[in-house]
Amino acid sequence: MTATSAPATAPGVRTATLPADAVLAVLRAALQEDAPYGDITSQTLIPAEAQATAVLNARVPGVFSGGQVFAAAMKLTDPDAAVELLVADGAAFTPGTPLARVTGNARSVLLAERVALNLVQRMSAIATRTAEFVALVDGTGARITDTRKTTPGLRVLERYAVRCGGGANHRFSLSDAVLAKDNHLAVLTGGDPARLTAVLQGARAQLGHTTHFEVEVDSMEQIEPVLAAGVDTIMLDNFSLAELAAGVALVRGRARVEASGNVDLATVARIAATGVDLISVGGLTHSVTALDLGLDIQLDIQPDVPAGRAPGPGADPAPARG
Q1: Could you give the CA distance from residue 170 to residue 147 in angstroms, rounded to a whole number?
Q2: Which of 101, 148, 149, 256 is catalytic?
């Protein structure tokens, strides 16, 4: 297996490496869906011995995410493929920028093409959107974070893409931290706000000292009773700008303050200016449009060689667009 080369990660980007097993699990499921019985098109048209060099090119500007996924997809279908990552995850690029290059068995490259593109296009779209939000709150002290509104089965990739864009991750799953939302509080208190502090204190007493405890509130009146329970973070959900500023002043550093709801590119700077510590944005993952990336392939096949026959020595490569 040829080692994958990669440039250094872009400065200031908190990415960390994706878990290889998780990436392979996603890729295997995607390939099983896309080619359950093989790729009959390539098997019919492309000689088994043909080699291909393919370049992943940017059609639009953006922020790259998914180099490891691209490489793993290509190596999953051809373990001997040589993959070169030309742009680091987290790095910005312009239209026409070559992002990665692969050389390997042509059938295998074509088999992996759509799966690799689908995932890297989505991951790069998330990184690009996140970077837009992060730029708008620069200098305020607020951090942009994602939510659990991710594509089922792709959370590990989408959360990584958020980090590539300079954002932070919220709890990964329901198993990682306590986040009491309105429905939890309704069940706990039976609709009696006077019980709020006591029930939260009782819940807190069940937790280990390392477990983060966050509570969502939807009114100013809930802030003091929630703070009295000793929570780590208080989420101000769908508060107006004036209410957010007042909520931050009321909390006075006794807990982290997270703003959630009605956050988009038009509102995020004003939300950050209220002094909140965190701004969670479901739109980072749930509503992005895949970024336009393409795979441009050059096959070592003479144009006049019939399907099923290997090209002769010294054949000139014929370019093809993927």
Answers
A1: 6
A2: 149
**In terms of domains, do 118 and 139 share one?**
no
Q: Is 75 a catalytic residue?
A: no
Could you tell me which of 204, 199, 236 has the C-alpha nearest to residue 219?
Answer: 236
Shared domain for 103 and 184, answered yes or no, is no
The answer to whether 237 is a known catalytic residue is: yes
Q: What is the pTM of this model?
A: 0.88
> Residue 234 in contact with residue 251, Cβ under 8 Å?
yes
Could you state, in chain order, the average pLDDT of each consecutive group of 10 residues for the chain (322 residues)?
47 68 98 97 96 97 98 98 98 98 97 98 98 98 97 97 97 95 88 88 94 95 95 97 98 97 96 98 96 83 45 41 44
List the catalytic residue out of 101, 171, 181, 256: 181
| Annotated catalytic residue, options 34, 101, 114, 204 | 114
Q: What are phi and psi of 204, to 5 degrees?
A: -60, -35
> What total number of domains does the chain contain?
2
CA 95 to CA 322: how far, in whole Å? 17
224 catalytic? Reply is no
Of 34, 218, 237, 243, the catalytic one is 237
Q: Is 216 a catalytic residue?
A: yes
Helix (H, G, I), strand (E, B) or coil at 272: helix
**Helix, coil or strand: residue 8:** coil
127: helix, coil or strand?
Answer: helix
Query: In which domain, by residue range, is 64 found?
Result: 20-128+292-321
Q: Which of 146, 214, 216, 258 is catalytic?
A: 216
Answer whether residue 81 is part of any domain.
yes
Domain shared by 36 and 55, yes or no: yes
Structural tokens at position 126: 């998330």
